[in-house]
Design brief:
The complex is a heterotetramer of chains A (222), B (312), C (820) and D (199).
Chain A: E1 11-13, E2 19-21, H1 25-49, H2 63-88, H3 96-103, H4 105-109, H5 124-146, H6 149-152, H7 158-188, H8 193-197, E3 200-202, H9 203-209, H10 211-218
Antiparallel strand pairs in A: 1-2, 2-3
Chain C: H1 4-8, E1 25-29, H2 33-36, H3 38-51, E2 54-58, E3 71-73, H4 80-93, H5 99-105, E4 118-119, E5 122-123, E6 126-127, E7 132-133, H6 160-168, H7 173-180, H8 184-195, E8 204-208, H9 210-213, H10 218-231, E9 242-244, H11 251-256, E10 263-264, E11 268-269, H12 278-283, H13 301-313, H14 337-345, E12 351-355, H15 359-362, H16 366-374, E13 378-383, E14 410-415, E15 424-427, E16 432-436, H17 449-467, H18 472-477, H19 490-498, E17 505-506, E18 512-514, E19 569-570, E20 599-600, E21 605-606, H20 676-680, E22 690-695, H21 709-714, E23 719-723, H22 724-730, E24 737-741, E25 746-754, E26 760-762, E27 765-767, E28 769-773, E29 808-814
Parallel strand pairs in C: 1-2, 1-8, 2-3, 8-9, 12-13, 13-14, 22-28, 23-25
Antiparallel strand pairs in C: 4-5, 6-7, 10-11, 15-16, 16-19, 17-18, 20-21, 22-29, 24-25, 24-29, 26-27
Helix pairs in contact in C: 4-7, 4-8, 4-10, 14-16
Chain D: H1 3-13, E1 48-53, E2 62-69, E3 77-84, H2 97-100, H3 102-106, E4 116-118, E5 126-127, H4 130-148, E6 149-152, E7 158-162, E8 165-168, H5 175-187, E9 193-194
Parallel strand pairs in D: 8-9
Antiparallel strand pairs in D: 1-2, 2-3, 4-5, 6-7
The chains are: A mainly alpha (222), B alpha+beta (312), C alpha/beta (820), D alpha+beta (199).
Chain lengths: 222, 312, 820, 199
Amino acid sequence: MSKSEVDAGDSVHPGKPVIVDRYTVAARINHWITAVSLVLLALSGLALFTPALYFLTGLFGGGQLTRIIHPWIGVVLFLSFMGLFFRFFRLNLWERTDSVWMSRMRDVLANEENKLPEVGKYNAGQKMVFWSMSLFILVLITSGVVIWDQYFGNYFTIEQKRIAVLIHSATAIVAICVWIVHVYAAIWVRGTIGAMTRGKVTGGWAWRHHRRWLKDLVTGKN
Amino acid sequence: MFTPVPNPTTNPVAAKFGQQDLIRRSASSVTAPAKRQTEVAKLIDVSKCIGCKACQVACLEWNNLTEEVGVNVGVYDNPHDLTANTWTLMRYTEYENAESGNLEWLIRKDGCMHCEDPGCLKACPAPGAIVQYSNGIVDFDHDKCIGCGYCIKGCPFNIPRISQVDQKAYKCSLCSDRLAVGQGPACAKACPTQAIVFGTKDEMKQWADHRIKDLKSRGFKNAGLYDPPGVGGTHVMYVLQHADKPQIYAGLPNNPSISPLVEVWKGVTKYVGLAAIGAFAAFGFLHHAVAGANRVTAEDEKNAERLTEGQR
Amino acid sequence: MASLGPTFGRGAMTNSWTDIKNADVIWIMGGNAAEAHPCGFKWVTEAKAERGAKLMVVDPRFNRSASVADHYAPIRSGSDIAFLSGVINYLLTNDKIHKEYVRNFTNAAFIVRDDFEFNEGLFSGYDESKRSYDRSTWEYKFGDDGFAIRDMTLQDPRCVFQLMKKHFAQYTPELVERVSGTPKDKFLKVADWVASTANGERAMTIMYALGWTQHSHGAQNIRCAAMIQLLCGNIGIPGGGVNALRGHSNVQGITDVGTLTAAIPGYLALPTEQEPTLESHLGKRTFKPLTPNQTSYWQNYHKFYVSFLKTQFGANATKENEFGYNYLPKLDGIYDCIKMFDLMHQGKTTGLLCQGFNPLMAIPNTNKSREALSKLKFLVSMDPIETDTARFWENHGEFNNIDPAKVQTEVFMLPVTSFAEEEGSVTNSSRLIQWKWKAADPYFESKTDTEILADLFVRMRKMYEKDGGKGKEALLAVDWSYKDPLHPTVDELQIELNGKALTDLKDAEGKVVRAAGQRLATFGEMRDDGSTDGCMWIYTGFYGPTGNMAQRRDNADPSGLGVYPSWGFSWPANRRIQYNRASADPDGKPWSERKKYMYWDGQRWSGPDVPDYVPTIPPDRAVGPFIMNAEGVSRLWVRGLMADGPFPVHMEPFESPVGNLVFPKLKGNPVARVFKYDMEALGTSKDFPIVGTTYRLTEHFHYWTKTVHANAVMQPEFFVEMSEELAKEKGIKHGQRVRIWSKRGEVKGKAVVTKRLKPFKIDGKTVHEVGLPLNFGFIGETKKASPINSLTSAIGDSNSQTPEFKAFLVNVEPIAGPVA
Amino acid sequence: MNMELSRRSFMLGAGAGLAGTSLGALGFGEIEAAHALSIRPFKLAQTKEVRSQCPYCAVCCGMMIFAAESKVEKGKMEVTHIEGDVDHPVNRGTLCPKGAGAIDYIKSKSRVKYPMYRKPGTNSFERVSWDFAMERIAKLMKEDRDANWVEKNRDGVTVNRWLTTAFLAGSSVANEGGWATFKVSRGLGLLQIENQARI
């Protein structure tokens, strides 16, 4: 068996059913701050991205305010996501079994998890969401600063800004797509949302989706 | 002498053009007017310009703009660049003509070119913040401007500037308020040597030919008109002594056009992006319908309990 | 104007702004019309664009006029006479002159006295101790009939034409290059283009300004230009002329009206103490014709003089008291502004009144001026804006270093209405009198100049009436019978300027031609018996019986020659081109169809303009076209009318990087007036190797617009223009602050390093020149700067006393610190 | 003056056989319409227009001055805009950077609003009344004139001159004001009188 699959704060409470603590309060708050900023960013960003959605500026009190708020939310998102990153990156490191898991995507989609290798705290899909988001947010904040004219207008050439604005919007699109996958997965795999709300999952959930994590918790391997 | 437009009247005059003459409107569509108005143009004859800056002052005064008093940095160009208050600016270049061996002091009046295909308007995300009238004027509506600075990225001539005061974009309006009552732009009226003249675009091209003939007779064999096709032509045109190399005139673009980056960003990206988002969402629903939810079974719970029994 | 007068008869721009469009060649030298007169320069670009005219600019700097020129030739400041004499020589030696014009319309044929001599740069009659000439030997030879002797073949070795050939022979292109630093080929191109107009077919106009005037030999610079134009036959024709571009809006009018130390309105003379009686004054001014049949218009001097006296003293001017002649102050010398400040500096002046004048900025040698002002008991500044002068007592650090506590001068700053808040007539550079209507009410408590002076005058007369005092009689003799003595109306003053009949004027048959009280239609109606008044004869008619001609606004131009005969009123007698009879040959036919203007139609002189001539005198009477001159012709040779010689001579500035290469004995202008203080304040080329020259920027008007926001934005800060070569030599970076100093003071500014200035090769040696814009000071919105005249010398021209602002010596060094 | 006529004479003057711009030729359809939102209302409408001329150089360009009720000084007319007078034969409506900015001169921060007086040795101006200023100046001048008046020179010639006070006359004053200046200054017996002509 390779490294431990357990985070500080994860623990098992035997009983019927078994309850497993998956996320600490801090982790959950951190996650939801990130989530909310991301949604706001997507809305304000899309409003400025395409005239079809310009009406969304209404949510932020008009075009001027949307233009002012968007980059600041971006900053919040970036910092908050940094928190998540250092919280989660260890258990998101890629393993050989993850590749096997990925190669059996058909079984994944068909809910045939017994045919898959046992999964630790995070499965390969979650890990991919984690790493792609990390990358995208880095790209977005960087390109965002380049086009943040009010404060950084004089530091970049117009050509640089043109490149930046293109990268920024393209990346944002992809990020939104990944976010959709993330949200859908949480809905599709029942019992998951509770992990981020109450911080707890049932033993059965853990057994079904993250058996290696559960075993490590039980064997106290940590 | 290009016959000047007669003096203005102080009696109210009905506007000669307005909303009904819009042919383009940023981030929105307009129903094009049945009949397009005669296109107007400003012709700037660099070979006649004495760089006196009367146009700069006239622009400030007419548009009630107040620019700050700056400093001298070793050149005649003051202010040193266009600003939210300086909509037009003389740019001075000392050019040593290798062929003739003469020094030439090229003085170009910089400012909005009023492109037929305006990059600023294309880039603008705020509906109606930038409009184009059928007579060729590209104008900013500051009530609608959100100050995002996309127009700056869209402009091939680096003209619009964002005000540090109200964070809105500003540039030459071709004195749309004067044109509306049949006057010409303030800069053209002031120009002491008629290096700036204003009229219909056809008249201006005609007048330019007349000027180019004179320049050729004085040995400027490459004299010509600057009306760049890359932006569909402009409603501010230059007569250049060396039309073969516009860039020597303080970096006037040789062959300006809207940056491909901007085209891609405002074009394909917009549609592909929305499509992708839609597709992903759709996939979710489809999959849920087909595969259904992934539920934890009683079996799973049992296994979990079994696994944890030893703990008790 | 101290040379146009002696040459042509009147000291003013010969043609009009709009007439410039008729030129085939335009020569700008000693001026920078594009920058100083942009809207007048329009007609240069018009001549180029519509007529294919060629523009050439000769200047030390490649300036904004040069930027649109067809040919530019560089010249070292102060060496204009050498250059221009070179052109004269080129015309004479290559016989490129308009022979018939020169023979008939100039004094080329006149014989000069045998005892006249010229050697080593000095003319006969020089007295070194007095620094002046006895000009008697510069006179014509007269015959027994009392008329000057002429040789119409121009062959007599003592005739003006032959003397000229001899005098200018040495100014070869090579010499010009050696002295002026103008490359030979560039010089020859200028000379050739000038020559191309030496025929009745093509015309050249010369446009100059203070670039020629502000030298210790300024008047002679302009003399050269006038002579060139006469040799080419370019005076009196459309598109020709010597066009003196005046500075201030009404400097022509204010000069006409005689606010100059020795003047009376209309170019009459203030009496000197050698003229105790009116007769003794007029006796010296009979202006008898020097050749038969000449008009010699100044023969009417006495009529104009008496009419002036009648306006000045009204009822107090009677035959018995010589029309009040003795109430006028009499001169014991002239008190030009340079002398004024020298006296002030000596502590001999109690009070100074400045009306729209900023002498601390305008007068040379600012440090001397500041000391002078500090010695005043009182200073009054009447101006719409605050001037540096009004605050001369205030400490502005290095820019105006003075201790207020030590300045005992009482200072008054009186608010005056701006141009928009008053009405009146203004005379432009080309003698065109136009009206301005009042547009707005006086700003806060401001008053017009007239109201302020009326208040002062009335108060003082009351004081004298009440308490008595010295010179009471002369003071009370002045006519001040305005309806409201505190507010003389513009109308009342305009009538005084124009003149009216005081009693019925009758002609020979005793028929009343002008009823008492009626305004005069022309100065021809003026009389010397006290029956007319009118303080300024040259303006007479501008408010004649038909009404206010200055207000005429019909801009029709039937001839298409830019005459606009019905727009405003152009003195004298509404003539737009002066001496226009010269546009036709001696027989009265146009020199060419192309240049057709005024001509004899069989009965009278006709054409688009008012003939500058008696309209009915036929050509065969051989009356010369220059009716103000007693010769009837123009003067290539000015006799004794100029202090420094009948012909121009190359003279170096008093501060020059080189000695006089043509006449080594000459140190500056040998007859220029030099005050002790200023002579001691001269620097040498050893300590100050660089030539400095001052000038205006088009973005500013003198010292006004530094207080005007928009203009401060356009040119915010004082700078120094220098060549890349000089910058390299001195280690000066573009935009770096530099220090410029002369023997008299220093200034600091930004370095504008440019290709538009190039070092000169003078007699084999490299000479650098720097350009110093004059528009900056310590009051206003532009960045504070020391007045540019901290550097300049008060030594002035021997005829006009105009200071040598355009050529002096300085040194330059970089100032350590961040580069802008 | 007749603007119709003036206009026509300009048309005749149009250069190089090229017809100049005429209003109709500008091609603005004759549609009655309110200003578009982006277009400012024409600011000269309903102002008072007067013909004047530029105060700066001796080209003396024709100017149109537009004035309206002052915002600063109630009941007074103040200048709201200045531009060139197209009817003027010399400048044809054009103005240089000085003329084009002339309104900034009229409204300059450096305009003097009230008579100001600086006492000897002090470091500031104080506001005074016209009466105080003029009375004081007249008194100072009379003192000096009485002290230094020369009625006759050594040879007994009447010279009636006053050499210790000087007058620098402005060259932007109108002719009428200039004549008043001459009459007063010579009337006082001054010889030290100059204007900008010499410099």
